[in-house]
Amino acid sequence: MRYVEEFRDPKAAKGVLAAIARVACEIGATREEPVRIMEICGGHTHAIFRYGLDKLVHEGIEFIHGPGCPVCVLPMSRVDECVEIAERPGVIFTTFGDAMRVPGSRKSLMQAKADGCDIRMVYSPLDALELARRNPDREVVFFGLGFETTTPSTALTIQQAARERIGNFTVFCNHITVPPPIKALLDDPHMKLDGFVGPGHVSMVIGIHPYDFIARDYGKPIVVAGFEPLDLLQSVLMVLEQIRDGRAEVENQYARVVPEHGNPVSLAAIAEVYEERPSFEWRGLGEIDASGLRIREAYRAYDAEAKFGIGYAVVRAKVDEPEGCACGAVMTGRIKPTACPQFGRGCTPDMPLGALMVSSEGACAAYWTYGGARVASETEPAE
């Protein structure tokens, strides 16, 4: 594992931190407020807190946590629909483990499983397809969830199901895309952001050019980053250097993994199986145009929304967040998790009110995991 160790080398990290401090001081000489850098990806949020990078960087830098957790941004109504499908007779509902404990307005999938529903955790959509092969008398539904990172695997699985003509397999499609919510945040006059650390895994699929609008139209730098400590520190330094130099560009720190134009095989599968939804509801951001994907007509036989008559095919009343839950404000970077009045009090990993506390990419889970009860006890609830 020497290769990984190189990205965690303390001596190298000290050198990058010193460079960050120098550039931050140069920027600070011309401004009073801190440099606000949003890490879009929830995986980056966890890495920042796992390695204590928020404490190590210069005090003139503030990390803002973005909406890069696909489980967290789903509205509660979509969780309710998962439960509704799972409660139907003859259904085997399959999902990634992250989504099991996300609360709906009535119950979570974990609670529905405890109530007798046949809900199974899988590691990939191919596991769900195999369940459909083995249970031809049952309807197997896969909870298709995630950004562009997981979208190709679901698309390829649907293609495989079509080739084998497996008629008892469908996908409840909740795949979403990263660029539209970034634009929504940039259009928000109350959001003050100086630059972005871009998502590494998403960019591995789509490349770096879908972010061109951030630099071109909004004049903000963005650096696509890896997930090791030195990856993130170097990316922060690259963002700061752009700000200091008056530049706004899309740069690729994670070039060892992220190709400039993305993965052509993955992009082709996505294009064949999916099309844009006119709009999709995001928790904390509301409806965002062209930010979600749905299954094309050619593969409609594998669309759970069409088969079960749910989802965006049905007009439903909006489901409000639990009282006092500030998931939307946390997820869009308006407040830190500890400013939520429920953090560590009414909302803990054992009894969560919101998805951000239970998802492995949620900001609240990051604060709790790497700060724990100490963080909660030292934090006064927000007014």
Automatic annotation (TrEMBL):
GO terms (BP aspect): protein maturation
Protein name: Hydrogenase maturation factor
PANTHER family on file: HYDROGENASE MATURATION FACTOR HYPD, HYDROGENASE PROTEIN ASSEMBLY PROTEIN HYPD
Coiled coil stretches, renumbered: none
GO MF terms held by the record: 4 iron, 4 sulfur cluster binding; carbon monoxide binding; iron ion binding
Organism, as annotated: Salipiger thiooxidans
Record-linked InterPro entries: Hyd_form_HypD, HypD_1, HypD_2_sf
Family matches, as Pfam families: HypD
Keywords: Iron, Metal-binding
Stated family: Belongs to the HypD family.
Cytoplasm is among the record's keywords: no
